[in-house]
Amino acid sequence: MNIDLGKVMSGTAKAAVIHKFRLYLEYAMLALILGLAGFAFYGYMKGKVLNETVTKLEADVANSNARVQEVEEANRQQVQAIKTIQNLTETQTALVSGLSEDLQKIAVRDKTPSLRLSALEKSNAALTQYLDALIPTPVGCMLDNSCEPASTNGSAGAKPTQGAPAKVPASGGGARK
What we know:
The protein is mainly alpha-helical. The chain has helices spanning 5-8, 11-123, 125-132, 137-143.
């Protein structure tokens, strides 16, 4: 069944339906335009917020990069300082080792004359008597720094102060310690 609206409706009714249809169509178009305007405004505001966020993040990245460069430079300096300290430690170790060896050699060298002198003293009575003899007072005061200082007129200053006896050997008497 095919109905023709032109035959069913009169001209005024037809115009009223077309007019209402057109009104509804205009309202729909107006709603669509307002919706698109709202969406555009939302997009603009969202873009503005995103641009501000991007600007802030770019500034943060720039600050972070500067800080990273500072930290990298500090690390390079620390690595250089550590290398320097390691080199100094190696040098110090070598010097201490050499010093230890030298001290051992000196100890052996110092012990050898003492052992020879002890052996000679035990085997030679004349040497024992010489080593047990008292040191003369002028020599003793020079050895323990108890002499008067030399005068400016050129006279010798190797005189004991106030007639003090020579104090050099604390063990008793002679040149032997």
